[in-house]
Amino acid sequence: MYSPLKYIPSIFHKRDPLQFTLFVTARCNARCPFCFYWQDRHTVQDELTAEEVEKIASSMGDLLWLLFAGGEIFLRKDLPELVDSFYRHTHPVIITLPTNGMAPDLIEPSLEKILARSPESAIVCKLSIDGAGEEHDRIRNTPGSFENAMETWVRLRRLGERYDNLQLGINTVFCRENQDNMDQIADFVETLPGCETHTISLVRGNPADSAYKEIDLEKYRQAVMRLEKDLKGGNSKMYHFTLARLKTAQDLVQRQLIYETVRQGRRLLPCYAGRITAVMNEVGDVFPCETLSDKMGNIRETDYNFPRVFFSEQADRVRAKINNSGCYCSHECYFVTNILFNPLMFSRVARQYLELPGHSGAVS
Ligand code: SF4
Questions:
Q1: CATH number at residue 234
Q2: Which of 104-118, 224-238, 241-255 has the highest mean pLDDT?
Q3: Closest ligand 1 atom, residue 291 Cα
Q4: Nearest 5°: phi and psi at 166?
Q5: Is 321 in the pocket of ligand 1 (CB under 6 A)?
Q6: Does a structural domain hold residue 74?
């Protein structure tokens, strides 16, 4: 498997992107009222083609973490080709593929192709579960979504038995509609065979139904503390990729920091968005993160040459604005890089690491 250790120098020199998020489509087969991406209505014709993505990937350096986003990414029938372009050119240590699980017949063959073609990457497939049973359908305003998600889970597990590079997880969006049922959801996820992690994402952005954002922050804290207790008590598993235990410790710190960030209403850590992270949407616009609308450029206007966008004067202006504006957010992806690549966070991560069960003293 590709090693994450080669990215250690980025702790001290944050010059090149090592985390890249590619939105491959805004299309979706669910109608979740809490979705942050519902206003993007690009057509299939606008989406970057597989040929365009091949050119983009070939212009980029190696990546620690590649995240595909949408929309429902498996609606792109050419998803395996898109992943393959990045696998060949950027050698990602981790490739994350989130799904709502609505289309098991599309997901299973597509994921199998990806697993077979990407043996050196950890393929993290995260299924969304926001309620146990019919509650999931109600919260997502999408009848049948729970049943489909469970069918998808069965098929993912079968793939997991054949492909050791597959890592399976569940993600729950914490919102007003499920904040009172988080224990029930956590109980349910613990019964799911093959589940290696359960994460919670705090609802973000400007959802179609803004009431979903009216959350009780203390209930978020209780929910993440429950997950922490389960992990430290040995009731929850961890991923099996290299340094997965370290990643779990970082997750624990991240949840504490997200709670504190929202409670205090300010950024508590330096943000490396636009320095070691980048986001591209399905029409080729490049941003430092998913939250800010400040565009660094468009890949189609630079002959698909990513460095020409990322190191442009416009990108420098966006980075300067991030440094000066003091913007803040609760977006989990940026806490990952802001924690792991900040030396001041190491002792805090180490403390959590040592509290996880089964550590041998060696970093794993
Ligand atoms: S703090 Fe959040 S919104 Fe601001 S640049 Fe970082 S990731 Fe983006």
A1: 3.20.20.70
A2: 104-118
A3: 3
A4: -85, 130
A5: no
A6: yes
Domain count, the chain: 1
- For residue 360, is pLDDT > 60? no
Single pTM value for the model? 0.95
DSSP lists the bridge partners of residue 287 as: 279
Residue 238 CB neighbour total at 10 angstroms: 19
257 lines ligand 1 (CB under 6 A): no
Has residue 363 been placed in a domain?
no
Q: Parallel, antiparallel, or unpaired for β 166-174 and 197-202?
A: parallel
Q: Which domain holds residue 107?
A: 4-355
Can you tell me the distance from the alpha carbon of 202 to that of 200, in angstroms, rounded to the nearest whole number? 6
**360 in a structural domain:** no
Residue nearest to atom 6 of ligand 1 (CA): 271
pLDDT by residue (tens digit) across 140-163? 999 999 999 999 999 999 999 999
For ligand 1, the distance from its centroid to the CA atom of residue 259, given in whole angstroms, is 16
Q: What's the token pair of residue 109?
A: 């063959």
Q: Which atom of ligand 1 is the closest one to the Cα of 328?
A: 1
What Å distances lie between residue 272 and 29, 37, 231, 268, CA to CA? Answer: 33, 23, 28, 13
Q: Which atom of ligand 1 is nearest to the CA of 290?
A: 8
Contact 277, 271 (CB under 8 A): no
By CB neighbour count within 10 A (0-12 exposed, 13-18 middle, 19+ buried), where does 150 fall?
middle
**Is the C-beta atom of 329 inside 6 A of ligand 1?**
yes
Q: Is residue 290 part of a domain?
A: yes
Nearest C-alpha to atom 2 of ligand 1 is from which residue?
329
